[in-house]
Amino acid sequence: MEVTAAISAQRHIGRSTAAILFGLAAGAVLSLGTDQVLHVLKVYPPWNEPMYDTRLNLLALSYRMTYDTFGSYLAARFAPRNPMRHALILGAIGLVPSVAGVIAATTIALGPLWYPIVLAVSVMPTAWLGGQLHRISSR
Q: Distance between CA 136 and CA 40 in Å, rounded?
């Protein structure tokens, strides 16, 4: 009985890890892919130049928040149990580079400071929203 329980627990940990990594990868690939397309189309300035245009920063913020929500939805969707917990764990993981981005923006000219701040502040609400969307859709 104990061996079966241990195997089951390992399977849940593996599936939980996979669900979170899947959500993380989806959000990152979609965000960076959209960035690249907009750079190639010359909507955005070249990668090595700061972007100060408010409209372009709002565009980036809108799709990043959408992709963050979608990634959290995926983490919740593929979680073996406790879907909201998985969505929020993904949000907490995403908070780390977001805060690092705020810190970097205070020392390096990357664009307006409000952008990384709003991105960092939005991480947990979008994670929660992704979890909620999963809850609603799974009824």
A: 37
Q: What is the DSSP secondary structure assignment for residue 42, as one 8-state letter? A: T
Q: At what angle do helices 83-107 and 2-40 cross, to 10 degrees?
A: 40
Tokens encoding 104: 């970097």
Task: Compute CA 135 distance to the chain's CA centroid, rounded to the nearest angstrom.
Answer: 18
pLDDT at residue 104, as a whole number: 95
Best CA proximity match to 130, nearest among 82, 70, 81: 70
pLDDT tens-digit readout, 88-108? 999 999 999 999 999 999 999
Decide if 45 contacts 74 (C-beta within 8 A). Answer: no
pTM of the model as a whole: 0.91
Q: Mean pLDDT of all residues in the chain? A: 94
Phi-psi region of 109 (alpha: psi -120 to 50; beta: other; left: phi over 0): beta
Rounded Cα distance, 22 and 131, in Å? 14
